[in-house]
Amino acid sequence: MTALTLSTSAASGLRADAIVVGVAKGAQGPVVAPGAEAVDKAYDGRLADVLQTLGASGAEGEVTKLPAPSGFKAPVVVAVGLGALPEKDEAHTAESLRRAAGAAARALAGSKKAAFALPLADPADAGAVGEGALLGAYSFDAYKENGTAKGGKAAGNGKAPLAEIVLLGAKPRDKAYKAAVERAVAVTEELNRARDLINTPPNDLTPEAFAAVAQAAAKEHGIKVQVLDEKALAKGGYGGILGVGAGSAAAPRLVKLSYTSSKAKKHLALVGKGITYDSGGISLKPAGHNETMKCDMSGAAAVFAAVVAAARLGLEVNVTGWLALAENMPSGSATRPGDVLRMYSGKTVEVLNTDAEGRLVLADALWKASEEKPDAIVDVATLTGAMVLALGNRTFGVMANDDAFRTAIVEAAEEVGEDSWPMPLPAHLRKGMDSPTADIANMGERMGGGLVAGLFLQEFVGEGITWAHLDIAGPAFNEQGPFGYTPKGGTGSAVRTLVRLAELTAAGDLG
Ligand code: BES
Ligand code: MN
Ligand code: ZN
Hints:
Layout: E1 3-7, E2 18-26, E3 29-32, H1 37-42, H2 47-53, E4 63-67, E5 76-84, H3 94-107, E6 113-117, H4 123-136, E7 164-168, H5 175-199, H6 207-220, E8 224-228, H7 230-236, H8 239-245, E9 253-259, E10 267-278, H9 298-313, E11 318-328, E12 340-342, E13 348-350, H10 358-371, E14 376-381, H11 385-391, E15 396-400, H12 403-415, E16 420-422, E17 440-441, H13 449-458, E18 466-471, E19 477-478, E20 489-490, H14 495-506
Parallel strand pairs: 1-7, 2-5, 2-6, 6-7, 10-11, 10-14, 13-17, 14-18, 15-16
Antiparallel strand pairs: 2-3, 4-5, 8-9, 9-11, 12-13, 15-18, 19-20
Helix pairs in contact: 3-4, 4-5, 5-9, 8-10, 9-14, 10-13, 12-14
Bound molecules: ligand BES, manganese (II) ion and zinc ion.
Zinc ion binds at residues 275, 278, 296, 357-358.
């Protein structure tokens, strides 16, 4: 795990492999960002000229490596692009710092230690640089012959992540700076653990294995944990979770994680879709659509990470996490299209398409979560391909039964640097799910498929409970190249938004 420390050392005197500085894109060329004054001075004030000659512009994500000036203990300077130069008297946004720090950390994979001298206007900026750097310094190499997980040195890309990050320009003895950095460490460690879970192949991460990981973490952080196995699920009447898991040799689980604070005034419930592999079931997905479906437990991973982060931060709010875990497989015991399931709520569902399985496991977990009458429920799920078509692969959709709540979530996401967009729940789409046999079908009109899924979930939210649904099917898994602090593979989408929602709930500003 990468270490993060604060230092008041001068950039020249710090022993490290590299010093990271920021460079913004100005109208006339690159502009060296605040924080890099000492470095620029050591280049006789010509760092911007040098960078321009080297072809740098300051564009977001651009990385330029150059030899450090004489007298520096670190041999290399890494200039990272921050994007557009802010207006006069304005600072770089927290998200531009996060992305730049992440890009720099990725460029430094294989190095041991780097000092970050990026512009820090306030403690929140220090937190953002810390977050970006720690999220950029990620690799998943547990399955590589010489991976760091096995005590070796090679990572997924052949290089181990940057091992030590030193923040320059922050005040190590200032409470606000310390708190911001501690928060960054807690959130990013849990987020990176969510990424590990998402990246773990589905033959190893079964529902049982996921539940065991949650149990161990809960123990470590003083979180109460309860695991319902297939017998307990049958006894409790969880027809949705059991129906989805029926075709798999790996039995389903429902995990409840309860973090409680003695100072809590509010209770937030988080529900995550945890399909450890989505083959589609009997409505089998064609080749080309199933290779990355180990990512279908990203919602549960995000909920898990957020509950643990809330506990580590000691937030003054009760947070209950529900992980609805099952593997969706075809077999002689699998649920068929045409089967009717009796759900935990008592409602019956005609399964018309076994590939619309996420809503079935979520329905049981949502109804169960509702029984505790929390102040609000937020579910997170890689639920529909339709949401990916609508919003692309970097933005999640937010639906809710309360307009103000939906707006608050989109704003909270923006605050922490996650892209999201409000989506409606048009009531007329409900009738497409009418079933001649059961109370509802698990599929409706194809058009607006993401909203249809949201309307289905809404049927399983307890009366009078504020609820929102985050469809992260697009941003949960990055199949393209890495960018900013986002690696290839599992991204940890929604973790930071959920942690922010818990903080806002604790402050009485939400739900
Ligand atoms: N897990 C998929 C959704 C998905 C698609 C996640 C792409 C990530 C990337 C989900 O279970 C699914 O298969 N949904 C179907 C629903 C349809 C059968 C009503 C879909 O979106 O095609
Ligand atoms: Mn599916
Ligand atoms: Zn799925």
